[in-house]
Amino acid sequence: MEKLTNKELELKGVIINKLRYGSTSYGLGGTVLIKFVLPNSLSSNYVLEQDELPNELPPTKLKNGDHVGIRNSKSKYGKDYEFKGIVYKIEKSEITISTDLNTYFPPLEHEFLTFSIDKLNPNDQETEKSVEESLEILKSIQNSRSTDNLYSAPAASFKPISKTLDQTQMDTVNSILATPDEASEIKGLPGTGKTTTMIELVLQLIKNGNKVLICSKSQVSLDSILDKLFEFKKECPSLNPTAIGQPSSIYSPRLSNYFLDNKILNDEYSYQVIRESRKEIDSLFYNLIFIKEEEKENAKNKINQLLEELVKTEKSFANQVLKDSNVILTSTKELSSPYLKDLKVDYIITDSSDSVYCIPVQNLTTFNHQTINSKNITTLTKNYRNNHIISLMNSSSNNSTGDKNNDQPPLTMIDTSGCDMEENQDVPNDEECISNEGEVTIIQKHLENLIKSGVDQKDIGIITLSNCQIKLLKLKLSSQYPDVEVGTPKQFEGREIEIIFISTVRSNNSPHKIRNLEEINRMVQFSITRSKKQCIFIGNSDTFSLNPQLDLLIQHIRDNGLYKSVL
pLDDT tens across 213-229, in order? Predict the structure, then answer.
């Protein structure tokens, strides 16, 4: 990595290069929040390079919670960091880094410099420490139900809040409500209504006066759950959720007021107390650059003292917000938050990838039969998300019943074999930095037809593994189709899109030497489950014939979907 240039590292998605200092503020827990912005947002004289996206950060593998190092753009990757921190929030044209109280980053000294933000990989010791901290927090979360409530099962039936539940989903919710002292699990293929069932379960639990903690590895998935909960605010007026962390950019506008930080600052009293404290700290920080060197140590000690007092004040406000909430949502990266320590809840709900974090906790509702020895198991089979053929493709049996009335060809493959649409290596000898302009051209033509036929841009998504392909797609499409979403599979976790394009990128001549065909297969299988009506798969059938699963998929599309060759 050290041998690559900043431009090549940015193409790989492991750094964001040439950013300017934007502002400094303070987050909960005494953290310092330093914002970096695009150069052209501060200066109208900045000239964009040909391959730079206007008013938008380049595609990146950075996400909320990642460890990063900030350095001068002229220095080498991995060296001479100004400071290290954690990604607090990424927005379209800016990124905010959270760091500790001891970070000294005076604005006037850095106003005209450009910076690179490097993704760091925490070592095994740091990862182990993070997991141990999360487990300790979960061990400290107390069960708030009395002994009488713990062993007295609710009534054998309930009145559903959602009007769309089928009988299996209602039976699932009823079974869990009737066995509060047992771990339960809900199994099912993507699109079979697991989240819908979970939402109903949460609503029923809080209607009965319970407090619920929901945990997920994916922030996007967590935000999707929060968004769906609010669809039932009228039916369940007691609903009072609080999410810990920062919302993903997809849901940010309508959900941000329900995150812990903003709930505290939206309260008039707590806002006034915190604002006055931060004004004093800001003033001391600003004056650091003007005072004598021998006086700086005393000034920094004063700042740290004020920050420690502010941390205590904020924690008391946070504890009150969480005490008043009946649904708390957190990602696994936020599990070690001190605000969760000694929290009292009645139920914990976790998705399949994170139940290992919840082993120490009793009265657990989970979706993972491999980790928890559950007696109460339900499997959902009816598919509500996907078109019928898409459902069959993702089912190991033929009991999945999708939307059979959809007249669109649900699975479409556009085969680029023999069409001189080979991949391009943007960084020599690096399989991660690959793009395919031919696939971009195909997508452009199909987008034009879809938009002309009345499809809303917001109902279209493009999924690809390659960071370079994301950048190329955005450069070619963003001016004409700004609302078409382009991203990696992680960006689409827990979500449903009407029409999905899959840009596989990989296409080369015989003998088709490609190392990550299995990863491409996983992306394709995942992407198919994100589409509700139509999935358009673009790739080279000759290249993919080397992978048995991809070869089977292509044959399935030939038999049941719509197969086209670019020839």
Answer: 998 877 888 888 999 99
Q: How confident is the model over 180-201, as a mean pLDDT? A: 82
State the angle between helix axes of 548-560 and 517-530 in degrees (0 to 180), rounded to the nearest 10. Answer: 40
Q: What distance in Å separates the CA atoms of residue 372 and residue 370, rounded to the nearest whole number?
A: 6
Q: What is the pLDDT of residues 439-470, one digit of tens each?
A: 999 999 999 999 999 999 999 999 999 999 99
Distance between first and last Cα of the chain: 39
CA-closest candidate to residue 474, choices 446, 435, 431: 435
Rounded Cα distance, 285 and 280, in Å: 9
We report the CATH number of the domain holding residue 235 as 3.40.50.300
Domain region containing 227:
128-240+326-380
Statement to judge: residues 376 and 423 lie in one domain? no
- Going by C-alpha positions, the residue among 464, 407, 452 that lies closest to residue 13 is 464
| Distances 545 to 87, 344, 432, 504, 518 between C-alpha atoms, Å | 40, 54, 21, 14, 12
Residue 356 pLDDT exceeds 60: no
In a domain, 313, yes or no: no
Listed residues 121, 140, 161: the one ending a domain: 121
- Over residues 320-352, the pLDDT tens digits come to 999 999 999 988 777 777 788 778 888 888 875
299 within a domain of the structure (yes/no)? no
Say what the pLDDT of residue 499 is. 95
Residue 301 included in any domain: no
Give the confidence band of 149 by pLDDT, cuts at 50, 70, 90. Answer: very low
DSSP label of 30? G
**Is the residue at 169 inside a domain?**
yes
Distance between CA 30 and CA 269 in Å, rounded? 19
Phi-psi region of 272 (alpha: psi -120 to 50; beta: other; left: phi over 0): alpha
Whether 564 has a pLDDT exceeding 80, the answer reads yes
Tokens representing residue 339 in the block? 């605000």
